[in-house]
Amino acid sequence: MEPALLIPIMALMIPIVAIVMSFKYKAKELELKAGRGGDPNVVSALEDMKRQIADLRDTTTRYDMSFDSALQRIESRVGNIENRVSTIERASTTAEHVTSRSS
User: Fold this and answer.
1) Cα–Cα distance between 23 and 25 in angstroms, integer?
2) How many CA atoms lie within 13 A of 73 on its CB side?
3) What is the torsion angle, in degrees rounded to the nearest 10, for the CA atoms of residue 21, residue 25, residue 28 and residue 29?
4) Which burial class, exposed, middle or buried, applies to 38 when counting CB atoms under 10 A from its CB (0-12, 13-18, 19+)?
5) CB 32 within 8 A of CB 38
6) Among 32, 61, 58, CA closest to 47
7) Could you tell me the residue ranges of all domains in the chain?
8) pLDDT score of 17 more than 60
9) What mean pLDDT, rounded, does the chain reach?
10) Per-residue pLDDT band at 37 (split at 50, 70, 90)
11) Considering just the CA atoms, what is the radius of gyration of the chain in Å?
């Protein structure tokens, strides 16, 4: 067979192989989901991984909520400190004006 003829044949075989492999993958996935066939160890490991991912998602959500709460407390405290500083500055400025007028 000529090499020039092999190139188009190979180019056409790649998508065909991809389609066949995709079909086999989907069939095996459905088989595992249905609980039929498959290695019980693999199914058990997949279920364990799903549980671990769910636990990790829950933990991440809790930490995120805790972080948001701490951030809100810090923002509130900074706001209070800014208000105090502003009040002190106004009182200081007022005292300076009173002192300069009486002099």
Assistant:
1) 5
2) 6
3) -170
4) middle
5) yes
6) 32
7) 1-38, 39-103
8) yes
9) 82
10) low
11) 35
